[in-house]
Design a protein that fits this description.
By secondary structure, the chain is an alpha+beta fold. It is built from one helix and four strands. The chain has one helix spanning about 5-15; strands at about 15-20, 25-30, 45-50, 55. The strands form two sheets. It has a two-stranded antiparallel ribbon. Strands 3-4 form a two-stranded antiparallel sheet.
Length: about 60
């Protein structure tokens, strides 16, 4: 689930999360159970074009 940069910074500072880089993108891993178990639905689209294929996730 996405979060705001300020919330992620607070989590890292308080020890609730650990920050790391994955393929050049900064990520946050929680060190404890999340307070809420809500999830977002994910839709994936594939566009087989004539010269290139396009992939999108929303």
């Amino acid at each position: 689930m996405p979060t705001t940069p300020s919330r992620a910074k607070r989590w890292i500072k308080s020890g609730k999360a650990t920050g790391f880089f994955k393929k050049g993108v900064f990520c946050v891993r929680l060190n404890q159970e999340p307070s809420n178990k809500n999830t977002q639905p994910i839709a994936v689209g594939i566009d087989p074009g004539s010269k290139r294929e396009g992939f999108t996730c929303h």
